[in-house]
Design a protein that fits this description.
The chain has 290 residues and is mainly alpha-helical. The chain is built from twelve helices and five strands. It has a domain at 101-261: Hypothetical protein, domain 2 (Endonuclease III, domain 1, Orthogonal Bundle), CATH 1.10.340. A three-stranded antiparallel beta sheet has the order 1-3-2, with no helix packed on it. Strands 4-5 form a two-stranded antiparallel sheet. Helix 3 packs antiparallel against helix 9 (191-202) and helix 6 crosses helix 7. The longest helix has 19 residues, at 154-172. 27% of the residues are buried. Bound molecules: iron/sulfur cluster. Residues 217, 220-221, 259-260, 265-267, 270, 272-273, 276, 278, 281 line the site of iron/sulfur cluster.
């Protein structure tokens, strides 16, 4: 607000209003331009025009929730999915290269937040220099960090690898224990890593490995609605026969790399389509990605 002399002869500036105060002076005030003020409730037409002007697409239609399914039906559907996965990926194996249970454990520790391909590029040198727990327990932190650097979080991973090897030497004579409880007590070893090692190296089904592919695809398939790996594992253990716990994960991981790719699932090429509920995806006719 600015105080103005009583020059009522000057032309009024655009957007300016003059008000008389009690003492006879004239105050000139400038009001905001109409376009900068909030106008309250805009009509649908105005909103659409606004969106159009801003180049925004209208919000996508929400996918319809899949119909309810009885537990018996879900178990039958799961059996068909198991059969189809076995037919398609019968020879699927663990994607991490290894020649012993110890090497598989080391490679799995390295695979946290890293692709299997990257881990497979690093492990030949790691295992050449430190092929077993005794050798790795003697390695320096600096040397191990240098070798595993490209897998990310390399300081923590090097610390865990050396700690794991040292504990194996001290408590298990350099061998891997064969129980979940003993494995998860090792540095850097969680439930997923222990399940991988027990299932793949020893053929012991201790649980279902839930990695990022298994988590995503089992939710798309409608086998679980849980969001945490622990809960998803429980849901899958209740659905799958114990004999399938190991293979089911291996095969889904391959499926996630080849067909059910994260941002572009190839549903029309998918052997599981008939029994997949495609939870959260748009109907196939509308889907651009499938
Ligand atoms: S049908 Fe589509 S969403 Fe379902 S598993 Fe196959 S690719 Fe994935």
């Amino acid at each position: 607000m600015l105080r103005q002399s009583q020059d009522l002869t000057r032309p009024r500036v655009f957007g300016e209003t003059w008000r008389c105060s009690g003492n006879g002076t004239v105050k000139a005030t400038t009001v905001k331009k109409a376009g900068t003020r909030k106008t309250g409730t805009a009509g649908a037409g105005q909103k659409a025009a606004g969106r159009k002007a801003a180049g925004k697409k209208p919000a996508a239609k929400k996918p319809a929730a899949p119909p309810r399914e009885s537990r018996a039906d879900r178990i039958q559907r799961t059996d068909r999915l198991i059969g189809q996965l076995a037919e398609t990926y019968g020879d699927a194996e663990c994607a991490l290269h290894h020649e012993s249970a110890f090497q598989l454990l080391a490679a799995t520790i390295l695979s946290a937040q890293c692709t299997d391909e990257r881990v497979n590029m690093v492990t030949p040198e790691l295992f050449r220099r430190w092929p077993d727990a005794f050798a790795l327990a003697e390695a320096s932190q600096e040397d191990v960090e240098e070798v595993v650097q490209s897998t990310g979080f390399f300081r923590a991973k090097a610390t865990n690898l050396r700690g794991m090897a040292a504990m194996l030497v001290e408590q298990h004579n350099g061998e891997l224990p064969r129980t979940l409880e003993e494995l998860v007590a090792l540095p850097g070893v969680g439930r997923k890593t222990a399940n991988v090692v027990l299932g793949t190296a020893f053929g012991i089904p201790s649980g279902v490995v839930v990695d990022t592919h298994v988590k995503r695809i089992t939710r798309l398939l409608g086998l679980t609605a849980s969001t945490t790996p622990e809960k998803i594992e429980q849901d899958l253990m209740a659905l799958l026969p114990e004999t399938e716990w190991i293979n089911f994960s291996h095969r889904l991981i391959h499926h996630g790399r080849k067909i059910c790719i994260a941002r572009r699932p190839k549903c029309l090429d998918c052997p599981l389509l008939k029994d997949c509920r495609r939870v959260g995806l748009p109907p196939l006719a509308d889907a651009e990605d499938c």
